[in-house]
């Protein structure tokens, strides 16, 4: 049985860490949550001790270093080592706004989910998709939540995680990506 409110909170925390820089006030509560001694006990699914320790110890770095890592991973100016958009992994040409983004947009429209961001961001950004999962979980829309996770996020999240593990040197964001994968997979069951 899915504990919807717990998954909604977890998806919000994960989405916040991907979409907002550590220097943004929005991220502070999420990062502080992951620093708490017993965060793994509060997580909606079982996560291994090694993963929870990896996350906590990774947050012991200098705050500016973590912010620099976030910028390099999700903003640029250089090419992103593991782009956070699904269409990059699913479209044969690896472009933004590919057919998978169109399919996601149709799903969001059908489910009456609106994206509200301060800047234009493709709807298949990992942070935005986690926020949409949080909305569906908080509204206890199980069928739509499972469809979002299975037909959209779940189709490319493993590819993103593999790419992330292969090329990214950021203990926190690597562990966060593993936690995201575990959480999405457990919710889908």
Structure, described:
The mean pLDDT is 92. With 189 residues, this protein is mostly helical. The protein contains ten helices and no strands. Helix content is 67%, strand content 0%. The relative contact order is 0.18.
Could you tell me the radius of gyration in angstroms? 16 Å
Mean pLDDT over all positions: 92
State the major sheet.
none
Helix content: 55-70%
Number of strands: 0
Beta-strand proportion: under 5%
N/C terminus separation: 9 Å
Q: Helix/strand/pairing class, anyone?
A: mainly alpha
Written as H for each helix and E for each strand, in order along the chain, the element string is: HHHHHHHHHH
Unreliable sequence segments: none
In DSSP terms, counting alpha (H) and pi (I) runs of 4 or more, how many helices? 10
- The general outline is globular
Task: Produce the secondary structure layout.
Elements: H1 4-19, H2 25-35, H3 39-42, H4 49-58, H5 63-74, H6 86-90, H7 99-110, H8 126-138, H9 142-167, H10 171-188
Helix pairs in contact: 1-2, 1-8, 1-10, 4-10, 8-9, 9-10
């Amino acid at each position: 049985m899915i504990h919807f409110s717990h998954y909604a909170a977890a998806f919000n925390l994960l989405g916040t860490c991907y979409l907002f820089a550590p220097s943004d006030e929005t991220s502070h509560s999420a990062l502080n949550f992951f620093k708490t001694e017993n965060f793994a006990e509060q997580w909606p699914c079982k996560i291994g001790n090694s993963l929870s320790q990896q996350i906590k110890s990774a947050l012991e770095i200098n705050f500016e270093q973590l912010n620099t890592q976030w910028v390099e991973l999700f903003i640029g100016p250089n090419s992103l080592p593991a782009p956070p958009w699904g269409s990059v992994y699913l479209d044969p040409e690896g472009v933004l706004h590919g057919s998978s983004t169109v399919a996601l947009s149709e799903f969001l429209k059908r489910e009456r989910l609106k994206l509200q961001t301060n800047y234009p961001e493709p709807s298949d950004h990992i942070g935005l998709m986690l926020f949409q999962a949080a909305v569906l979980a908080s509204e206890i829309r199980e069928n739509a939540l499972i469809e979002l996770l299975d037909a959209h996020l779940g189709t490319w999240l493993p590819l993103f995680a593999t790419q992330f593990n292969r090329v990214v040197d950021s203990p926190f964001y690597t562990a966060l990506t593993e936690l995201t994968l575990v959480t999405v997979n457990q919710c889908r069951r």
